[in-house]
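Hey all, quick one. A colleague (J.T.) asked me to put the 5-hydroxymethyl-3,4-dihydroxypiperidine job into the tracker so the inputs and the structure tokens live in one place instead of scattered across chat threads. No bug as far as I know, just bookkeeping. Sequence used:
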Amino acid sequence: MSEFRFPARFLWGAATSAYQIEGAVAEDGRGESIWDRFCREPGRVDNGDTGDIACDHYHRWRDDIELMRRLELNSYRFSVAWPRIFPIGKGQPNKAGLAFYERLVDALLAAGIRPLVTLYHWDLPAALQERGGWTNRDTAYRFRDYAAFLFERLGDRVDLWLTVNEPYVAAVLGHALGMHAPGLKDLNAALRAAHHLLLAHGLAVEAFDDLGMRKTSRGQGPARIGLALDIHAYAPASDREADWEAMERARTLEARWFVEPVLAGRYPQEGLEWYKGQGVEPPVKDEDMALISRPIDIFGLNYYRRHTVAHDPSQPIFGYRVEVPPGRPVTELGWEVYPQGLHEVLAWVRDTYLASPAAQPAEGSIAFFITENGAAYPDVLEPEAAAPKADADRPPAPGTQKRGPRVRDVERRDYIAAHLYYVWRAIQDGIPVEGYWAWSLMDNFEWTRGYSCRFGLVYVNFTTQERIIKDSGRWYSAVCGENGLEVDPERLVG
Ligand code: IFM
């Protein structure tokens, strides 16, 4: 075992998103979101689950902050539900919705936990969807207004902001593959949605600067902003040329399509050509790429797995499938556990987009935040162990006290430990990673999988809403508290 220490002031956190944990979907004036509607369509979500109650965090946020304290987190990433702030996406703000986040932020700060706020984690106001949602350019401008409102109201207390989370998933799974809300199967819609999500990001960054919030010599404010992109590691399924091409296509359409506009102000040429071959193109207007590539301070990386890509013309639209090489470890969702991929992706982003002097930002440097990383495993809750009969006159002997319920999630602990080791390696290689947010603080609504799989450091009983810190959470609290971990690099999972 060796000890791997992290830089002073490293941010140790856990992440959640509004629809996945809050519940209270019809309370205090919250408007409907596209996920409320999607969940009610038969067959969309496993078991007919919805986010109506989820983890009831809207009512239990104080207890949840206490859990964060016990986990020794010094940061917490959460998202704001746009329909709580603007129930129909625009117009009059809803005071009660804002008040919820003000209370949450104040209590986090009082507990010494620094908020990292995501503005959009997929819960678009349903009223905007009725006008085309992300396929409508106007939605990006409504997002700018919503973002500016939050910067003004929370910007005195929140200094870390993310605009959009995983625009690839929102655009492609939501509009081309019909797997996420709003459930469309239309490639042109997906490309429009992707562009408008990127534009929304750029417009929000512009609003941030207009309000003087940025922490640079140009701006007046103390805050930093960026976005969170999901990027996998990639490998070809074989040495066949077709598999190499399929892998490059996957990387281009899933990752480069989003990284390149933000960091280099252009769409990848290969991607434009591929989409053109499908008869579609992004609806780019003159000023768009300059807006989308406005300097950011935070590059948020959500990393979970490796995609081993095989050419497969029978697959709809993109013509490739993702495989797991034989014998490789997988999580409950069948995702390959490939921790060194986290280092590979960080190095790829830095070397491809940030190494040249012309790379943005013009001043200051981009920090990497690992905004999500974690795994679903089939947790088993062991019931409370009965205490042995006590001698009435004597206190119970050490180790014989009644023990609470327990989740021995060794696999999740090993998954996180291995990934943290590669974060540490990346830092040694000069990649400026400033924080790590485990996905997720607690078990929650996992989109189309509903409550059937668990990602939390904290176990949630969805009937009673009882929370139980899993063994992985206890272990993670020691890592956070000690600002480092002990692992044997020769024996890491994956
Ligand atoms: O639960 C999701 C999260 O909302 C976005 N990133 C991936 C997680 C696990 O699937």
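Adding what we noticed when we looked at it: The chain has 15 helices and 17 strands. Residues 17, 20, 166, 302, 372, 439, 446, 455 surround 5-hydroxymethyl-3,4-dihydroxypiperidine (CB under 6 Å).
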